[in-house]
């Protein structure tokens, strides 16, 4: 009986409610669109507000930064632009490039930027279709949508004239970082995967998964994952804070105005769901990819070092770690598990997270001095075990 309820009844009710909300929204806009004042509009997205919120959040970053649009040309749309921030670009050390996850933007790295930029150039940008970047229409084919996202990263690299760098991706950004390293291996000196989405295959025995994941997967399958934020209209920030109060709490110690984070997330995702639609095309159920990365990871060039880190309390399937270890037995691979951290590991335990990333960057700096360091299986075995234990101890403090 439970299976019937969660598989058919709840998704049907959710679809009806979403359809009614969509009908209401379109009817409201149609009737009032020609003569209503600005305060009556349901969607409260404002480009100026998003810019202001980003600046307010990034005020806690002590390192000077620059923000600008990088014109990458007609990658998906006719004239795509990528919103980018950079720090400490004069440093001669290996640059670090940051790719955020679904629904995020550059400001959510605010707890990490100072540590990263202490001794190297750092670049963070809103992925195409997200944040302040352009919102083109992506392909509905999973493979093509992924390639379009990866191509946009490469065109951004060309415009930035970066030869090689450490590439850090969180969640969906981790999936895209790995895909980029597969397509453009010459430019990746070290790949850091932070609680990456889309790596393991979807389990054949779906019934063994937690009930809330099964329910969420069934309910979200027909819709873009963040559609509820847009349906909520001006109540979006409240909706985000009510549904995920933990996200606001992650930044509470650093930000006096705690409402900034839900407002920022709302402004990032109340726009046209461009990149979100690309994610929807790539996903097979919310937690898995149609083209999982573990089926391709053995094709990645062996001299690309990988640091894989998870939060011990994350909902992400961690089974990919053993598969990567097995498929890249002759390559550098370091597994890190941060105790007490969830999926947003960069904000849950920023000090431990920052140290892991800085260690990976230091490894990249040293590759020129020790060319074959990344290919030593004995070192891989030792570092993988020791570093995980050390990270757990740090997180308990």
Quick summary:
The protein is α/β, with parallel strands linked by helices. The protein contains 15 helices and eight strands.
Secondary structure layout:
Elements: H1 2-32, H2 47-58, E1 65-73, E2 80-87, E3 96-99, H3 113-116, E4 122-125, H4 142-160, E5 165-170, H5 172-183, E6 188-194, H6 211-220, H7 227-231, H8 236-243, H9 245-250, H10 260-269, H11 274-282, E7 306-311, H12 320-327, E8 333-338, H13 345-348, H14 350-366, H15 377-396
Parallel strand pairs: 3-4, 3-5, 5-6, 6-7, 7-8
Antiparallel strand pairs: 1-2, 2-4
Helix pairs in contact: 1-6, 2-10, 4-5, 4-11, 8-10
Task: Report what the structure shows.
By secondary structure, the protein is α/β, with parallel strands linked by helices. The chain is built from 15 helices and eight strands. An eight-stranded mixed beta sheet has the order 1-2-4-3-5-6-7-8, with helices on both faces. Strand 7 (306-311), helix 12 (320-327) and strand 8 form a beta-alpha-beta unit. Helix 1 (2-32) packs across helix 6, helix 2 packs antiparallel against helix 10 and helix 4 packs across helix 11 (274-282). Mean pLDDT is 82; it is low at 2-40 and 370-397.
């Amino acid at each position: 009986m439970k299976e019937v309820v969660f598989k058919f009844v709840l998704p049907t009710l959710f679809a009806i409610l979403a359809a009614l909300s969509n009908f209401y929204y379109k009817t409201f806009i149609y009737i009032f669109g020609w003569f209503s004042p600005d305060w009556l509009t349901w969607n409260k997205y404002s480009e100026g507000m998003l810019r202001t919120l980003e600046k307010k959040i990034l005020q806690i970053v002590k390192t000077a930064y620059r923000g600008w649009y990088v014109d990458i040309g007609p990658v998906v749309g006719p004239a795509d632009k990528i919103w980018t921030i950079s720090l400490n670009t004069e440093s001669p050390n290996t640059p670090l490039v940051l790719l955020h996850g679904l629904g995020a933007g550059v400001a959510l790295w605010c707890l990490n930027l100072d540590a990263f930029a202490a001794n190297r150039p750092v670049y963070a940008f809103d992925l195409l279709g997200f944040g302040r970047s352009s919102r083109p229409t992506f392909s509905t084919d999973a493979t093509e949508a992924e390639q379009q996202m990866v191509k946009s990263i490469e065109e951004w690299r060309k415009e930035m004239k970066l030869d090689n760098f450490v590439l850090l991706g969180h969640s969906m950004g981790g999936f895209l970082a790995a895909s980029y390293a597969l397509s453009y291996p010459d430019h990746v000196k070290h790949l850091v995967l932070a609680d990456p989405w889309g790596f393991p295959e979807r389990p054949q025995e779906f019934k063994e998964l937690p009930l809330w994941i099964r329910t969420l997967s069934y309910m979200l399958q027909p819709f873009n994952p963040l559609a509820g934020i847009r349906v909520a209209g001006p109540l979006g920030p409240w909706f985000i804070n009510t549904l995920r109060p933990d996200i606001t709490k992650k930044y509470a110690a650093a930000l006096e105005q705690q409402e900034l984070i839900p407002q920022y997330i709302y402004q990032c995702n109340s726009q046209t769901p461009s990149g979100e639609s690309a994610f929807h095309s790539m996903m097979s159920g919310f937690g898995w990819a149609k083209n999982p990365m573990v089926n391709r990871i053995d094709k990645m060039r062996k001299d690309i070092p990988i640091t894989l880190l998870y939060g011990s309390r994350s909902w992400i399937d961690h089974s990919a770690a053993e598969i990567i270890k097995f498929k890249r037995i002759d390559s550098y691979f370091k597994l890190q598990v941060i105790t007490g951290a969830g999926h947003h590991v960069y904000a849950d335990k920023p000090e431990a997270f920052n140290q892991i990333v800085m260690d990976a960057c230091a490894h990249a700096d040293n590759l020129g001095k020790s060319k074959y360091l990344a290919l030593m299986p004995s070192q891989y075995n030792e570092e993988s075990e020791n570093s995980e234990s050390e990270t757990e101890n740090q997180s308990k403090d």
